[in-house]
Write a structure and sequence with these properties.
The protein is α+β, with helices and mostly antiparallel strands. It contains 5 helices and 7 strands; from the N terminus they run ααββαααβββββ. Helix 2 crosses helix 4. 12% of the residues are buried.
Length: 196
């Protein structure tokens, strides 16, 4: 193989070159044993990481339930753990469903923890086709499935389970105050609903 030099290798406007040509040499001027210090720090961090992962595995078993396509986290139990462990439990759940954590950022974890202050049924979309939904004191994670037909014949006073946690209840009411409608409740004017 022929050796070649890329013109951008010396340009410090690129972060990698700034580190290589400016920052690391300055740090080595302060501490000539910089690489050894970094190696030792990595070893300490690895020890801490191993311990936290073992504790997170215990917390995961205590807070996570698996159903067919979903994982459900007991948030009341999870928030009793240290925040570092709670994040690791959620990371483990997301990794289990998505197969990777690529694309997940701190904002996604904030959305998940933020669900606890939202109304029941609140749903957030996540990377890799995943979603998280508040389900009373739990947060359920699932993956988006290919759209299929949700067509169902509904009769008055029916309770129909469409998919996993999607349940349709039909009731005929003659007087309904729209200003007091609860989350997850939709109202249709029967005179305006036409069958296909």
């Amino acid at each position: 193989l022929r050796f070649s030099i890329d013109d951008t290798n010396r340009d410090t406007k690129y972060r990698r070159n700034l580190m290589r040509h400016v920052i690391v040499p300055r740090l080595r001027a302060v501490n000539p044993r910089l690489h050894e210090a970094i190696r030792k720090a990595i070893e300490f961090l690895k020890t801490d990481d191993d311990y936290l992962e073992s504790r997170a595995a215990v917390a995961y078993r205590r807070t996570v339930e698996r159903s067919e396509n979903n994982l459900s986290l007991d948030m009341d139990k999870l928030i009793r753990y240290n925040k570092a462990l709670s994040y690791r439990v959620i990371r483990k759940a997301l990794n289990e469903l998505a197969g990777t954590l690529d694309g997940f950022e701190s904002k996604h974890f904030a959305l998940i923890f933020g669900l606890m202050s939202k109304e029941n049924g609140k749903l957030v979309n996540l990377p890799k086709g995943l979603w998280a939904q508040k389900d009373f004191d739990r947060v359920t994670f699932g993956s988006c499935r290919k759209a299929g037909s949700l067509y169902r014949k509904l009769n008055i006073k029916d309770d129909v389970l469409i998919r996993d946690s999607l349940k349709i209840q039909t009731r005929l009411v003659t007087d309904f105050d729209l200003t007091r409608r609860k989350p997850g409740v939709e109202v249709f004017d029967r005179a305006q609903v036409f069958p296909p």
